[in-house]
UniProtKB/TrEMBL annotation:
Keyword terms: Acyltransferase, Cell membrane, Lipid biosynthesis, Lipid metabolism, Membrane, Phospholipid biosynthesis, Phospholipid metabolism, Transferase, Transmembrane, Transmembrane helix
Predominant subcellular localization, coarse grouping: membrane
Protein name, per record: Glycerol-3-phosphate acyltransferase
Upper taxonomic lineage: Bacteria, Bacillati, Bacillota, Clostridia, Eubacteriales
Subcellular location: Cell membrane
Record bears the keyword Membrane: yes
Recorded family membership: Belongs to the PlsY family.
Amino acid sequence: MVMDYLKILSMFILGYLLGSLNSSLLVGKVYGVDVRKHGSGNAGATNTLRTLGKKAAVFVILGDALKGVLACLIGSLLVGNNGLMVAGIGSIVGHNWPLYFKFKGGKGVLTSFAVALMMDWKVALILFAIFAIVVAISKYISLGSIIGAALFPVAAYIHKSDDKLYLVIAVIFAFLIILRHRSNIKRIVQGTESKFGKKKTA
């Protein structure tokens, strides 16, 4: 029993270390720019797009997704499905609070989506569809992320109510994403949140 817990803990640590490789900050170093000092201040793909352009954002998207996938694959190979989910959560936590970048990371949406795909692609695609619809209507990427995350536990319960760890992980997902979007929620309420496809005016 103790060994099982140690294995699970080691998967979380492994995922955390992988997740700490924040793609936007690594790509920013190539450009000589710390994206946390520009735009929204978030170390993620959306702020990279606004700060460094489409090419840089593509590399960030690929990097953020890949580390989530790798964490899950390694966790699955070493420990099984529980290892997959725990390593996945670790990669999200690492992205949000990266060890290598003074614990100042992004909001974990892309990495979370990659991990959700690895856990159950059907649920993940449903959540992505909800995200896309919300963004298309509101033009707020953050709102789409928040609503998609909030509905993850609901979708998980409907689809896999017998898998307790999956349900717990879904709740943790939702909590982490909503927690990291607190400032966005405030700006949405105030009407000052940036809309997708629209540049800020002075």
